Amino acid sequence: MDATNHHDVLKAVSSTAIAEVGHDNKEIQDAIALKGAIPPLVALFKGKRISVQMKGAMAVESLASHNPFIEKAFLEKSLTKYLLKLLKAFQMDVKEQGAIALWALAGQTLKQQKYIAEQIGYSFIINMLLSPSAKMQYVGGEAIIALSKDSRMHQNQICEANGIAPLVHLLRISKIAEGTLLSIIRAMESIFQKKNSTFDSQELYLLEDTEEFLMLRHILEVSPVSQQCIVDENAFPILIQLLKNHPSPNIKVEVAFSLACIVLGNDVLQKDLHENEGFEYADVFHLLHSTEKDICLRAGYALTLFAFNIRCQQYIILESGIMTISIFEPFLESPIETEKAMAAFQIVEWAKVIRDVDHITLSARGVTILVDSLYSVQTSTTVLTGNLIASLAHSRAGIPEAFTALGTVQQLCYHLYPGTEEV
User: Fold this and answer.
1) Residue 175, Cα to own-chain centre: how many angstroms?
2) pTM of this prediction?
3) How far is residue 126 CA from its own chain's centroid?
4) Would you give the distance in Å from CA 272 to the centre of its chain?
5) 265 near 222, Cβ under 8 Å?
6) Within a domain: residue 398?
7) Domain of 386?
């Protein structure tokens, strides 16, 4: 064995060892990084041996997984450009490892995930969705979610790049892994989620100095492009079938939420869903009584979106079952802040149709919980609460005034200065 091959073997073996010992262990991950492993790992990708780079990508995935410090260190070394090259490899296992390592660098924040997804690009993301590999499909779905969330520009561009078709195709595959299917359904719903009078940075840049800013404010909340795409791809029958027949309650409730996002704010689509596609609220309503808390809460949120700001629709939903405060009480008393905030949002929206509590008392309780949630030290709670308050501010009369009376504006202003960028 010549010296070059010997060095390559050592690099591959060392990378494999790092991948093994660093897996799911932040303390060891940090220790390896502090010993100076990151620069030589990055340098390894400058070589020509794909097999060595694949082992290096395994080490990158292991070290960076759920470790913001190491993610940042790799990103500062411009590792993404080398990992992107692995996506062009002929061998599927190399492509898979490159994709997984890239997504490990995406971390847990939306900003970083968007950055990695943008680096991958629409073309590669769609190729991932079309791949026979479950791992590639999963990363492609997660990248779509990152791009689409709170970005009307990306939502429309994904549709224009024919990104809906491969998502719908994957929904038709009967033997697809549940985790991959969840990612694909969430990717679809992210494309249709409405924004609450928020804007992409690109949109703000284009609009902030124009007189059209205020006039376009409402228009930017609607995405007829993406809604038309779902009609063209005939996705409704597949989603309805999953909702009615899939054995997993997790899949069923995610499909329900996805359907709610798709038809939100579109009376024509909502009518079509009920009259022509066989959708029934009963299929969602029974999930409200699931023994799994996450499913119950998600089902409640889906029903809330179906009837958001449409009182007659709420009464139609109630034909499938009785809505009582007992459904929401476990979440309103939950020690998990995000559960409590989500339940508070739902009781405010359903206040006039929940039968066993006065609607004024119920609305006041929900508003108070949401205002209190703005004082949380948890970023996830603050971000979620801000979105929920923004949604309710577009609902019935009196709700914005109730928030204002409880000092919401002052607390929101406080959050503009310290803390994380997302907050």
Assistant:
1) 23
2) 0.82
3) 17
4) 26
5) yes
6) yes
7) 347-423
